[in-house]
């Protein structure tokens, strides 16, 4: 009996003998974070993460995650919300009547007590109601070209340019206009007149570029007129023509007189 108790005591003192409390602590260390909760890594995505919509338009945003069992999701935005749809690991949110120039929309998902999020940028724009190029006016030696771009938003992201034929002859960025309201813009340009430009078509264009979204609006073509003669030019031309006619008459009279003098008397 004494020998049996000695063997049991040696087994209990052996380092390799399993202890229940220590095993439980090892299992807990594998499944819990230092704070006492399990936080498996997961990602949150929102799609699209950038969207430009026409002023007053609507869109859908999809918020998804890799969490196997999401505890909840939410959306934080100042935009007007519509319907909400959901499925496994995703929630879709509808945003209505977008009128703010630029808005950040935040999507959040909670998984195993941890909340993570993703952000999308939503912008609104307004294509010009019209692009009108006035008929060119020749003043002195320059054509005056005047282009009107109406009801645009946001103005500072537009570029207005003029084309003669297929070539850009002038371009101007409107980035100096920092207002966030609908606006009308008028661009005036003096084009030096050249004889070969007469009859050439000219057009005006307004281009909006928002992170890859390009919106182009164009005017109807107008034709550069033939330069009109000024009164001084007309007087000079008349004098020149009269002088030429006089010279021809004198030369003709001299030739006739010489011809007659060479004829034998009758």
TrEMBL record:
One of its GO terms (cellular component) is plasma membrane. Residues 19-41 are annotated as: Disordered. It is a single-pass type I membrane protein. Residues 42-129 form the Intercellular adhesion molecule N-terminal domain. The keyword Ligase does not apply. GO terms for molecular function: integrin binding. GO terms for biological process: cell-cell adhesion. InterPro entries: ICAM_N, ICAM_VCAM, ICAM_VCAM_N, Ig-like_dom_sf, Ig-like_fold. It is found in: Membrane. The chain crosses the membrane at residues 235-256. Keywords: Cell adhesion, Disulfide bond, Glycoprotein, Immunoglobulin domain, Membrane, Repeat, Signal, Transmembrane, Transmembrane helix. Residues 1-23 form the signal peptide. Its main location: membrane. It holds the Pfam family ICAM_N. The keyword Repeat applies. PANTHER family: INTERCELLULAR ADHESION MOLECULE, INTERCELLULAR ADHESION MOLECULE 4. Belongs to the immunoglobulin superfamily. ICAM family. This is Intercellular adhesion molecule 4.
